[in-house]
Design brief:
It contains six helices and 42 strands. A hairpin with a 4-residue loop joins strand 16 and strand 17. It is elongated and about 120 Å long.
């Protein structure tokens, strides 16, 4: 028996140490462990028998010598069982015993240990060329009127993809979304490559302001039925299942509500009594709220921001006029709100740059009961930032944000009246980087996301502060790295300017839609070039800044170009000039397909919903244009 057990033990150990390949690693491990357990069990039985035998001798007071320990073979069984279990646990599960190389005629496989990659994140940070200190920028953060250090938002802001910004079908803000990359919703059925004005609606004037001005883009929305039912729409419009509503704030101080199909009124206009230059915006959650800012004083009232209920038409909130924190003192403490604000849906935070040089973020505390048909807000004191630069003053390089901002995750990108371009972390309200675009910028930038950790911003200024004695000068179109603020390309153009009606770029660029015939293009209108009254529209390669095509226009354009697409992705561009002509252009080539007259000067920018385009004129008309 002892010989058999000894041979078994030796054989198992040899099997393990030889790395026998006839058995898989898992099977070999199991066999060794079971054998080890078996040997330990045998040793346990022998040890039990030993102590029973020893106890009997003690009871009998035997004269035999009483052993103190089990026999050596039992000890060997214990040690062997433990060794087998240990070897079984150490056998690699690939079929090879521990520390034994595999014998094979094939070359050994190369094993590479991959380091764990950190998550890809979008984190802008300044470099030497985008250090705010280069321009002596001073940046301050306030809660209410109290200056604070090391602010951090308790509810972090983070915007998502631009296509998800608005919960309803339509265009909710100037240039559409938080990237400001499209004023178009849906696709058009285009067979004739023509456009035709199919309806017009008259507007009014206020002081010297007439019709629709810059930027003046309409908002367009298809409300859900439950929301229509609680709003102050006419009954016939509530019952229209496919109603698409045009909401247009104009220079005459009214907000008009029109049926996209025929231009008929969907409800009574709201008369705020202060002119609106900017487009305003709708709440991205589909709540019946409109945010819109006045562009000039009237009747002794200074410009301000408004939040308006679209359930009742009542003003729920107005703010930003005569703010004591503003450093801007020219033009009677100028404080217009021409930019189109954005709202972070998750944190219920309104984000609004003002021409008073303050960047406002306001927790709204919105209460919306759709079943009861009620909506209200109870805004907290704003958290805001204020800036100063070495060249800012009351007479030149004014403070203020006139353009609308991009927001990517928690980073805001915006240009200002003194020619600086800023990247701001909304969760700390601190300035991340700055870049000099050299002159007054009214252009709302377009943002292009190319990867999770990469993006680009396209912007351009007007000619104002840098003009020469003959009111001429150079402005540039810019592509900026959104992470570092680095200027990736800069394309200069010689332009003229006129006091109060600037040359250069007053419009916002059109970024070609991915997968369309203008993918890879950024399209600008440049006013007052090559002559004081003329202009051009150019398409540049987004990678290089190379000019792909150019459209010479007898009259300049402040209106931003808009693209619409057929289902195959073929792009068409519509642009309106200062004489009231709308050009229909093939996007890929710049070829003019058609021109139609809209009656008078167009400074406003159009918006497109499927096969309808809407734009207002300074001649006090809103035009509905059918795409055919």
């Amino acid at each position: 028996m002892k010989k058999i057990l000894s041979l078994t033990l030796v054989g198992c150990m040899c099997l393990c140490l030889s790395g026998c390949g006839s058995v898989g690693g898992i099977l070999l491990s199991t066999v060794l462990v079971l054998l080890g357990i078996g040997l330990l069990a045998m040793a346990g039985l022998r040890t039990y028998s030993f102590f029973q035998y020893r106890a009997r001798l003690l009871r009998r007071r035997s004269r035999k010598k009483i052993p103190s320990f089990p026999d050596p073979f039992t000890i060997v069984l214990c040690v062997a069982g433990a060794v087998l279990i240990l070897l079984g646990l150490l056998v690699p599960k690939g079929g090879q015993p521990a520390n034994q190389p595999e014998v094979t005629t094939d070359p050994p496989e190369q094993t590479t240990t991959m380091a764990t990659e950190p998550p890809v994140v979008f984190v802008p940070q300044m470099e030497a060329a985008s250090n705010p200190a280069n321009w002596g920028i001073q940046w301050e953060v306030f809660q209410g009127t109290q200056k604070v250090e090391n602010f951090r938002r308790s509810e972090p802001i983070s915007f998502g993809d631009p296509q998800d910004y608005f919960a309803l079908p339509g265009i909710s803000a100037f240039r559409g979304n938080n990237y400001r990359d499209s004023a178009t919703y849906g696709t058009a059925s285009i067979t004739e490559q023509r456009v035709e004005t199919v309806w017009t609606v008259d507007t009014k004037s206020l002081d010297n302001w007439t019709g629709s001005g810059w930027t003046g883009q309409p908002l367009i929305v298809k409300w859900d039925q439950e929301t229509k039912d609680i709003m102050n729409l006419y009954d016939l419009k509530k019952m229209k299942t496919d109603l698409v509503e045009v909401i247009y704030a104009t220079l005459d101080g009214h907000i008009y509500f029109l049926d996209l199909d025929d231009g008929s009124y969907t409800r009574e206009p709201v008369n705020v009594g202060m002119c609106f230059k900017g487009a305003g915006s709708l709440d991205p959650r589909g709540y019946p709220l409109m945010y819109v800012g006045s562009g000039d004083s009237h009747g002794g009232k200074q410009p301000r921001m408004f939040v308006i209920s679209l359930v009742t038409g009542q003003i729920l909130f107005e703010y930003g006029h005569d703010d004591p924190l503003s450093l801007r003192k020219d033009n009677e403490n100028w404080c217009a709100f021409d930019s189109s604000p954005l709202v972070d849906a998750e944190t219920d935070t309104l984000i609004w740059p003002g021409e008073n040089g303050l960047l406002y973020t306001i927790k709204l505390n919105t209460s919306y009961d759709k079943a009861a048909g009620t909506i209200s807000i109870a805004p907290d004191a704003p958290v805001l930032s204020r800036y100063d630069t070495d060249r800012s003053s009351e007479s030149k390089y004014w403070y203020g944000y006139e353009a609308s901002a991009n927001i990517v995750e928690n980073y805001l990108y915006v240009s200002e009246n003194g020619g600086m371009f800023y990247c701001v972390d909304l969760n700390t309200m601190e300035l991340v980087w700055a870049q000099d675009t050299k002159d007054d910028s009214n252009c709302s930038p377009a943002f292009q996301r190319t990867a999770e950790d990469q993006g680009y911003v396209y912007t351009a200024p007007s000619l104002h502060w840098t003009k020469d004695s003959q009111s001429k000068g150079s402005i540039s179109l810019y592509k900026l790295d959104a992470i570092t603020g680095e200027i990736l390309w800069e394309v200069p153009y010689q332009v003229h300017t006129v006091e109060g009606v600037s040359g250069g770029v007053q419009s916002s660029p059109l970024l070609g839609k991915a997968g369309s015939s203008i993918d890879g293009m950024i399209i600008y209108t440049i006013s007052r070039t090559p002559y004081a009254g003329s202009g051009i529209m150019v398409a540049l390669d987004t990678d290089t800044g190379r000019e792909i095509w150019r459209l010479d226009m007898n009259l300049y354009a402040w209106s931003s170009p808009v693209a619409f697409y057929d289902k195959a992705g073929r792009a068409y561009v519509a642009v309106c000039d200062s004489g009231g002509t709308m050009f229909l252009v093939e996007g890929a080539t710049g070829q003019v397909l058609q021109q139609i007259g809209l009656g008078s000067l167009v400074e406003a920018s159009p918006a497109v919903y499927e096969d309808m385009l809407v734009v207002g004129t300074r001649a006090q008309q809103i035009c509905g244009v059918k795409i055919k």
